[in-house]
Amino acid sequence: MPMPAIASDRLVDLHNDLTHYDTLISAELREFLRGNPVNRSRLIVDSELEEALRSFKAEMPGEVECRRDLLRYKRRIDDVVRELLRMLDDRKPPRR
User: Fold this and answer.
1) Distance CA 42, CA 25 (A)
2) C-alpha–C-alpha distance, residues 25 and 85, integer Å
3) Distance between CA 53 and CA 10 in Å, rounded?
4) Per residue in 13-33, pLDDT tens?
5) What DSSP state is assigned to residue 40?
6) SS3 content of the chain, % helix, strand, coil (to 5)
7) Sign of torsion over alpha carbons 59, 61, 63, 68
8) Longest CA–CA separation in the chain, Å
9) Per-domain residue ranges for the chain?
10) Which CATH topology does 9-90 take?
11) Which residues of 18-35 are buried (b: 16+ CB within 10 A; e: fewer)?
């Protein structure tokens, strides 16, 4: 998602936080798809990031649209977290 040419440092930080969240969740999803153990403690919906995105005060129209896109993308990641947790709960325990 494109960042405004002149974005505030705070918006850049929020973008970086969202990128970290996405990377963390995608790594756990990849392990799940490979049949490897998943670290459930890392699979949490980041409510602090949601609140930070919601409370960000945009100073220009480009930042308003970027903030909106970041929130939309974060909610998609949250959906993946919830679905992955559901699939983990539905998965049969491994045989010993």
Assistant:
1) 8
2) 11
3) 10
4) 999 999 999 999 999 999 999
5) G
6) 70, 0, 30
7) positive
8) 59
9) 9-90
10) Methane Monooxygenase Hydroxylase; Chain G, domain 1 (1.20.58)
11) beebeebbeebbeebeee
Identify residue 48 by its one-letter amino acid code. E
pTM reported for the whole predicted model: 0.84
* Rounded distance between C-alpha atoms, residue 42 and residue 48, angstroms: 14
Amino acid at 28: E
Q: Which residue has the tokens 């990031």?
A: 49
Instruction: For residue range 72-96, list pLDDT tens digits in order.
Output: 999 999 999 999 999 999 876 666 6
Helix axes 61-90, 9-33, angle to 10 degrees: 20
- The pLDDT assigned to 4 comes to 52
